[in-house]
Design brief:
The chain is an alpha+beta fold and 191 residues long. Helices cover 19% and strands 34% of the residues. The chain contains one helix and eight strands, in the order H-E-E-E-E-E-E-E-E. An eight-stranded antiparallel beta sheet has the order 5-4-7-8-1-2-3-6, with no helix packed on it. The protein starts with a helix and ends with a strand.
Amino acid sequence: MYYKSDSIIFNLKKTIMFKKIRSYLPVSLAFLLLVILFGCNSKSQKAEALLEPKSGSNVKGKITFTKEGNTMKVLADIEGLTPGLHGFHIHEKGDCSAPDGTSAGGHFNPKSMKHAGPDSPERHEGDLGNIKADESGKAHLDITDSILTFDGESSILGKSVIVHENADDLTTQPTGNAGGRVACGIITIVN
């Protein structure tokens, strides 16, 4: 048996439920949008450079760049160096074909800043300072940088990493007086 009051109650329940769903809809859509925008980017982007010897050296190694939010983690493991400090930079061209590494061009500097150390707020994007080799010629670096990026005109992708013969003094313009290039590797994306 069907009563008119049942229809009224059913419609009233349906209306109340619909209003509740509508009240949560904007919040649900906003949450979904955040998941889409940030969830897809939460996966770390990675690139690496495999160093090959230059200028008659035996230097080789691997540098990994991992984008984490607004920063870039740089991990480097290099061997075959002379003990001490060596200039460590990103250069403007992804070309390591020259025997002395000069095909990589100058420091990567799309914003035309002065050469400086990695902690300076105004520096070349490619200024990563020095890497220190121990007595066995091995060097390890683990830094986080807020300037390096994989995006736009400042993207380091397709550029080269150069390890220099000497220490970067962090002040001499435009290169830090770091001497010859003993290793070169092109930065490529890693899937």
